[in-house]
């Protein structure tokens, strides 16, 4: 089966800021993701993870190489790829419900059964009682659930998540992680998930890739063969953790400025 995401030889350099030299961010990155796969991407800060995700989302373009989604080059954003950022991009002047209505209309997904679907989604993400609330009245976790609800509303087969739980407290983060796994098991959406946390990557993903410091390249591509629900205290979990940390530690050392 051909991969849903097919990235080959991707390169990206940003122009230098105010006379500084150009910044080479991605160097010949190749990555293939199969339909329904839950893939986590890790790597030191500034290695180009968000740049990669932005290219897949259609917010940015590579200088060279190919980024294909279902065999088609990505040239723009699209409802087939839903995005969740660390900083929730919700419309602050719209209620919870209106945020979903707007997303569905904008994606051309509005239909006679849309109101019923919105109700079902609000129930699924635990925000039914907050239908009329504005984003500023929601907690960080609730806002992220709404951002995920928006992807459910437009029914994107692919979810692109850039450290979506990074700003949340540990308890809320744990709840959202467990819920994301449940959602993935229900819907089998393809998920590309960026994180800094080894535990988070191993709790969530079927496969973890690690990138080098800028310009980012993939140095580890590991299939995670652990039963679910995953238990972060088992020796098997910790063996995977050791394997990833052993790759990440030298990578981090390389990325630290020499003092
Ligand atoms: N629009 C831009 N213009 C110029 N430089 C940029 C732009 N976007 C990103 N960069 C630079 O590209 C590099 C990679 O940035 P990117 O945001 O992809 O890293 P990241 O791996 O997501 O880091 P973090 O883990 O901190 O989120 C950084 O050095 C950043 O300054
Ligand atoms: Mg980033």
Short description:
By secondary structure, the protein is of the alpha/beta class.
- Unreliable spans are none
Helical segment count: 7
Q: CATH homologous superfamily of the largest domain? A: P-loop containing nucleotide triphosphate hydrolases
Round the Cα radius of gyration to an integer and report it: 19 Å
What is the SS-derived class?
alpha/beta
Beta strand %: 15-25%
Bound molecules: adenosine-5'-triphosphate, magnesium ion
- Within the CATH hierarchy, at the fold level, what is the topology of the largest domain? Rossmann fold
Report strand order across the widest sheet.
6-7-8-3-9-10
Q: Shape from CA axes? A: globular
Secondary-structure element order, N to C: EEEHEEEHHHEHEHEEH
CATH structural architecture of the largest domain: 3-Layer(aba) Sandwich
The CATH class name of the largest domain reads Alpha Beta
The number of E-state strands comes to: 10
Mean pLDDT: 93
Amino- and carboxy-terminal Cα gap:
49 Å
Total number of domains: 2
